Amino acid sequence: MSKEPTVSTEAIDLPGLGALTVVDLAQPLTETTPTIQLPEPFANTPPFRLHEISRYDERGPVSYWNWFECGEHVGTHLDAPNHWVSGQGGRPVDEIPLRQLVAPAVVIDRTDEAAADPDYLLGLEDVRAFEAEHGPLPEGGWLLYRTGWSRYAQDQEQFLNADESGAHTPGIQAECARWLAEESGIIGIGVETVGTDAGQAFELDPVFPVHHYMHGAGKLGLTQLANLDRLPATGTTLAAAPLKIEGGSGSPTRVYGLLPR
Amino acid sequence: MSKEPTVSTEAIDLPGLGALTVVDLAQPLTETTPTIQLPEPFANTPPFRLHEISRYDERGPVSYWNWFECGEHVGTHLDAPNHWVSGQGGRPVDEIPLRQLVAPAVVIDRTDEAAADPDYLLGLEDVRAFEAEHGPLPEGGWLLYRTGWSRYAQDQEQFLNADESGAHTPGIQAECARWLAEESGIIGIGVETVGTDAGQAFELDPVFPVHHYMHGAGKLGLTQLANLDRLPATGTTLAAAPLKIEGGSGSPTRVYGLLPR
Ligand SMILES: [Mn+2]
Ligand SMILES: [Mn+2]
């Protein structure tokens, strides 16, 4: 079992930008980082594995270093449009415009609903209620969907919450996903769960509707986010930093929330 | 041969932060990304390798995704204090404070000198001359050392520039490295080359003086940076985003330069 994300908000004074709070939105990356498990016959991703090269020893007297195996979709990571068949021909992870990676973000909180029902699905009425209180979703920005699921992020079993019918984790209704992808101005959806779709999303129509509609519209996903409870409903700048894997479908990603003080 | 970094500066309007230019300082990550080669008997890092899991086919009809092998010190990457024996017991990459990862940066340009002499070593007099013109190095910030070497960043042979006497790439004199580590207020050094030390640094005293002194002082390194020519001498905010590899000695890292407009 990996350690919890450390306390991660600090005041930082930057020339020309003033004082910021930086919130670390990424989970630690370890051999126990929860990893998605698809049913047969789908191929699965290997988890994160670390291999020591030297540790101040005969293999390298002055240095300690490792190499690692990792899936593009392991741990806190970004889904590029070309990850899904509906986005085939769309942008790979190394070609995502910087204006989509450093962009405004809002947070919709459905922690109570997901605690009461692990299969809770966000609906269009939830988005409408948010907009009535906080104004429209940010044009060119991110919708971060807080469910409290990050409390399970260090434990594969609790995080996937699977039984004989598959995983039970919160997600988004198909019609809401379609509206967010095709009618709203957001360019990405970020979640605390192992993927942007619900654990039971293989039962929805279309299957995996967030992936289907968002990537089909050239939009992005971010998963396994931490510390969403540290962000206000509006006013965060998200800085997502995927590796530039050439032609890749995604990447493990460090993510910061920047808050002017 | 990998493609060049794409044009990567854009004006982005952010709530509370105003208009920023974001400069992408990371190189693409591919199977041809240049990787350090140490002489016998040192163990070397494997390069980046990409493995397809499915591509809209029988292995996964709706998705395309990969897994990969990568060294912590491959491509644009961060060196944590525990990477070096002088920093043994120091911070691993997942515990670096956010105030060091999002911090001011200045750029010293020695492109002409490195073009004339690939073994050029930055000296204390270069730093003094910079400070006389631009003011002191930033307390808690980064020194970015521009050498023009990023022009070779897509080609292993040109980038390492090795002959029978080893690699020939620019670096920093031992006494200058000591001063930057022990007497200046900076917390990290960023370079365009494969490592923070010169290609011939195994001949210096101490060997690999930038690693020795900087990590011994708990400070950081950043390598294989791109687009340093897009940054002003002062006024950049660096945002370095290593993966949170628990206990790791470094990580491939996306890096942004944020410039208020
Ligand atoms: Mn994914
Ligand atoms: Mn290194």
TrEMBL record, chains A, B:
Pfam families on file: Cyclase
GO MF, any single term: arylformamidase activity
Protein's GO biological process: L-tryptophan catabolic process to kynurenine
UniProt name for this protein: Cyclase family protein
